[in-house]
Design brief:
Length: 183
């Protein structure tokens, strides 16, 4: 297989990618300046371009968003910063006073190589729990309840998470691309 490096500082994301993907991909942490935009594809594309410019070899990056219907596109791609500043407790409280706790969890993988940028997206509808629950997973998993479920991702085991994962949906699309272009 052609070399491909997954750029992430999040060990949980790297572990999930390895669990869902049938290809072995190295991962590395790079300090990349991340643009601030509510457009998930734009953020992932720019991160991939920046990583490719640094390494000069094919790279894969991921960005995620969590959009609350009651708040428009927020927190969106900024959810990482919301999580770092106010944690899951604060994220859950953002919807206090709103009847609508519906949310959409999205992910976008951007692969950059000599042929340009290739995007692979997945999304899941769900709701935001009134308070954090569970300890499995990472980031805001403790506040997102996938549609049709009663547990947050952090309350689910790996198999249950996989069945409802927006990341798995995106990785399935990535898998097809890699099988056709990276063997």
């Amino acid at each position: 297989m052609k070399p491909l490096t997954f750029i992430t500082g999040n060990a949980g994301k790297a572990e999930q990618l390895g669990r869902y993907l049938s290809f072995s991909i190295d991962h590395a942490k790079l300090d990349i300046e991340e643009i601030q935009s509510l457009d998930l594809e734009e953020v992932a594309t720019e991160k991939a371009r920046a990583a490719y410019a640094i390494l000069g070899t094919p790279v894969l990056v991921e960005d995620t968003a969590l959009r609350f219907e009651a708040l428009g596109r927020l927190p969106g791609t900024l959810v990482k910063w919301f999580f770092e500043e106010i944690g899951n407790e604060g994220i859950a409280k953002l919807l206090t006073g709103y009847k609508n706790r519906n949310a959409v969890a999205e992910t976008c993988f951007a692969l950059c190589d000599k042929n340009g940028i290739h995007l692979f997206k997945g999304s899941r509808k769900g709701t935001v729990s009134p308070s954090p629950r569970g300890s499995n997973g990472f980031g805001w998993n403790a506040v997102f309840i996938p549609e049709g479920e009663s547990l947050t991702w952090a309350e689910m085991d790996n198999e249950q998470q996989s069945k409802t994962s927006m990341r798995r949906l995106a990785i399935e699309k990535l898998q097809v691309y890699l099988e056709a272009n990276y063997k």
